[in-house]
Design goal:
The protein has about 400 residues and is α/β, with parallel strands linked by helices. Helix content is about 40%, strand content about 10%. It has an eight-stranded parallel β-sheet. The radius of gyration is 20 Å and the shape is globular. The structure holds flavin mononucleotide. The site of flavin mononucleotide (FMN) has 24 residues, from helix 3 and helix 16.
Length: about 400
């Protein structure tokens, strides 16, 4: 029996819907356009562009959203959906819903408390919070919030630093390591280049490095005394574009936590990831922020699922905005999904309560959509839940 440490709040699903009808307004707008509008009004324009922008002409980001329209749900009637259970089992834990808050770096550009409000909202709902390597608050501080938590690693050029970060995460109670494969260079992002805006060069988003003993030992002066030199040191090591699969296999040996590789889009890479000892993969194109003109993540999902044939769980992100999107990703074989920009909009619009309400609205929408489509458990979903849009058949 798996440990169930977290339950969804009771004001979730149909009860939440009824409460809203009866006047209990969430702290942030429910509709996406209104939520975006409110978030935009509360953010510095450079921060808005950083969060919402994508690579190049932003075609991948648009493709991510459009892909969901090619897989319409075909609702089934007269099935018993009176009691629903959205929980899933993943890496020896039971999650209350098939959802994680994905790694989003440098949240201090969105909220003065950085990642803390998002982590607190995750704790309140019981969904895992995935802390980015380039977070504004360090691994240990986020751990004090008490959310179920995973740590995302951008492998640097320095093996000892990678090992140190993973050890810190394990010591602070993080229960999985996500290694992001798709960010060996920063994507060509027109909006950020135009300004120019890169928060790390202002020493934002480097808390995990500045508190790391291996990183600090290589500096002539501590980052508190000479932040510019610390930023220069970071810029020289944060990523290693020359790394290969052998380096990933080596990382596998540096942690006993489940290792999940993020950014897998090709079936051969998926197989390679598992051959290297990965315990899971995340099909993702980084929300379109890396390669302009890349395959929509949802289109890559069934191909990766087929290639892995159930060897490890396949997670998914890039483009999740609605409950129906979660249903579709699960029907195409994902075990769970991650969200990125959506919860950042909640963070910008309403801090911790904004993240909490945005996520609860999403999960309530998912619950109602599941019920109306004829499903009461995630495991019931498969490809038969979906049709194929006429435009995709042509
Ligand atoms: C502002 C921003 C910062 C991000 N930072 C990271 C990061 O530090 N590490 C990482 O693996 N992914 C990062 N991502 C990618 C997300 O984890 C996720 O893949 C993406 O946001 C999913 O697409 P969505 O925004 O459409 O949900 C970031 C995304 C955004 C929008």
């Amino acid at each position: 029996m798996l440990e169930t440490t977290h339950m969804l709040p009771t004001n979730f699903g149909s009860p939440r819907q009824m409460a809203i009808y009866q006047g209990a307004r969430p702290s942030v707008p429910i509709g996406l356009a209104a939520l975006e509008q409110k978030a935009r009004e509360s953010l510095d324009p450079a921060a808005w562009d950083y969060v919402m922008g994508s690579a190049g002409g932003e075609r991948t980001a648009a493709a991510n959203l459009a892909a969901f329209d090619r897989f319409p749900i075909v609702p089934r009637m007269q099935r018993d959906v009176g009691t629903r259970d959205l929980s899933i089992d993943l890496f020896d834990a039971r999650l209350p819903a098939p959802l994680l808050l994905g790694p989003v770096g440098v949240q201090s550009i969105v909220h003065p408390e950085g990642e803390l409000p998002s982590a607190r909202a995750a704790a309140a709902i019981g969904v895992p919070f995935v802390l980015s390597t380039v977070s504004s608050r360090p691994i240990e501080e986020i751990a004090t919030v008490g959310a179920p938590r995973w740590f995302q690693l951008y492998p640097s050029r320095v093996a000892e630093l990678n090992a140190s970060l993973m050890q810190r995460a394990a010591a602070a109670g993080y229960s999985a390591i996500v290694v992001t494969l798709d960010t060996r260079l920063m994507g060509w992002r027109d909006r950020d280049l135009e300004r120019p805006f890169l928060p790390f060069l202002r020493a934002e988003g480097l808390a995990n490095y500045f508190t790391d003993p291996v990183f600090r030992a290589a500096l002539a002066a501590p980052p508190e005394r000479d932040p510019a030199a610390a930023v220069r040191h970071w810029a020289g090591l944060y990523s290693n574009p020359a790394a290969t699969w052998d380096d990933i296999c080596a990382l596998r040996d540096s942690t006993r936590l489940p290792l999940v590789l993020k950014g897998v889009l090709h079936p051969d890479d998926a197989r390679r990831a598992v051959d290297c000892g990965a315990d899971g993969v995340i099909v993702s194109n980084h929300g379109g922020r890396q390669v302009d003109g890349a395959i929509a993540a949802l289109d890559a999902l069934p191909v990766v699922v087929e290639a892995l044939a159930g060897r490890v769980p396949v997670l998914f992100d890039s483009g999740i905005r609605r409950g129906a999107d979660i249903l579709k990703a699960l029907a195409l074989g994902a075990t769970a999904v991650l969200i990125g920009r959506l919860y950042c909009l909640g963070l910008a619009a309403g801090g911790e309560a904004g993240v909490r309400d945005t996520v609860l609205n999403l999960l309530s929408d998912f619950d109602v959509t599941m019920a109306l489509s004829g499903y009461s458990r995630c495991a019931q979903l498969d490809r038969s839940a979906l049709g194929l849009a006429a435009s995709a058949r042509a």
